[in-house]
């Protein structure tokens, strides 16, 4: 971080290196330095496309420390997921495990536009959202390895990360089920007049489910402050979107509910869209954001991810649209840090992840009595039988 601070102090907006002049249409610095930091304005990679709404501006305000923190946080997420892959292969993580590498810009851009009083709820691809909400690496790895120090006490595993105090309501394994729950959270926010919103994230596969439309209908009818975020990574397990959806324009699928199509690989575009959506939802009710994104790993650890898509497709996205590389280019062309400083950054990140894994491994497995806590049964291990549920069998831990 010391390198980042030093780099940020060195920033001079008027100094775009000669060899980066070709980026001028993309980068439009202006000389304001309110708050001590130079303010930067960056154009999004592509324009937003609106459905029943005028889209926000493509010019996004940012500053050096934000860009550096985006780089750092996305690198941390990327490294965490790659390390989880290795831990899985060494059998230290078992069961379900869905990785988020490739999609990091959605988690980071969303977090940059809201507060911890706003709520987020997502499906099973949840590790990085948890991290973005302020969760720690140790809690994440401990949860993945089923240890006591995990964010769900080692009882949830990969799909059930949770951090209620920071407005993160999971981590859900049943495809689509989190969307009606998210609408319920928004109902509570409206009822309690909290002035906050809920972002309910779901995949392109989930986007075809009936429950989504039922929840959206009632949310629109009651003007609930909910933002439906479709993370369109273009596949639901091994099924390409065109095999599953008559209309893959998910931002339009709310019909009477407005929507916005966003480049989900561009963290600044995600930030701009989420800020816009929050303001809209507080005034008017639901809106849909379709994030055009991509997952580098297979669907889960049992899927190599290369039987239903070509290697060229994956390599092409990495080369052309990678969210970390995009921010790296911005940082270097603004001279906020050099390429070698960013490499040092990444080395620090790698060390941080390794240390967290070592610490998480020291945490013991949950006590067997935990089998009977936090389950929907009254009392420890008590089950009721019979038509009138009057026969009771108690199994003590
Ligand atoms: C109700 C239900 N049906 C099926 C499954 C099995 N399943 C798990 S993930 C998945 C694909 C979902 O794809 P998508 O919504 O695009 O999310 P992504 O994995 O791409 O993030 C399916 C069918 C499930 N968990 N729940
Ligand atoms: Mg998908």
Automatic annotation (TrEMBL):
GO biological process, one term: pyruvate decarboxylation to acetyl-CoA
Residue ranges of domain Dehydrogenase E1 component in the record: 73-368
Cofactor list: thiamine diphosphate
Top-rank taxon, per record: Eukaryota
Pfam families the UniProt entry points to: E1_dh
Molecular-function GO terms, alphabetical: pyruvate dehydrogenase (acetyl-transferring) activity
Entry keywords, A to Z: Oxidoreductase, Pyruvate, Thiamine pyrophosphate
EC number: 1.2.4.1
Reactions this protein catalyses: N(6)-[(R)-lipoyl]-L-lysyl-[protein] + pyruvate + H(+) = N(6)-[(R)-S(8)-acetyldihydrolipoyl]-L-lysyl-[protein] + CO2
Top-level class of the enzyme under EC nomenclature: oxidoreductase
Assembly mode: Tetramer of 2 alpha and 2 beta subunits.
Function: The pyruvate dehydrogenase complex catalyzes the overall conversion of pyruvate to acetyl-CoA and CO(2). It contains multiple copies of three enzymatic components: pyruvate dehydrogenase (E1), dihydrolipoamide acetyltransferase (E2) and lipoamide dehydrogenase (E3).
Protein's name in the database: Pyruvate dehydrogenase E1 component subunit alpha
Record organism: Musa acuminata subsp. malaccensis (Wild banana)
